[in-house]
Design goal:
Blueprint (H helix, E strand, L loop, with lengths): L2 H24 L2 H23 L3 H7 L15
Helix pairs in contact: 1-2
Length: 76
């Protein structure tokens, strides 16, 4: 998993959300349609990524599970 690619996806999703929100505020159907298609593309790619990611890949980047819940979890 590539942290830079992950950040790019999050930034792209944020931009799409802003576009959709703006289009809803201004009642811009063409802009909304364009942003919706872009969101569909990003979500399709995300679904493909999830479908093709193994449990071993996920556990290799996840923090270890702790049984001691007395302390708050550490942030990444």
């Amino acid at each position: 998993m590539n942290p830079v690619a992950d950040l790019n996806v999050l930034c792209r999703l944020r931009g799409i959300y802003r576009d959709i929100d703006r289009c809803l505020d201004t009642r811009d159907p063409r802009g909304f349609s364009r942003a919706s298609l872009e969101l569909r593309d990003v979500l399709s790619r995300l679904r493909d990524l999830i479908d093709n990611t193994s449990v071993a890949d996920i556990t290799s980047v996840s923090p270890p599970m702790r049984s001691d819940h007395s302390q708050p979890p550490q942030r990444w």
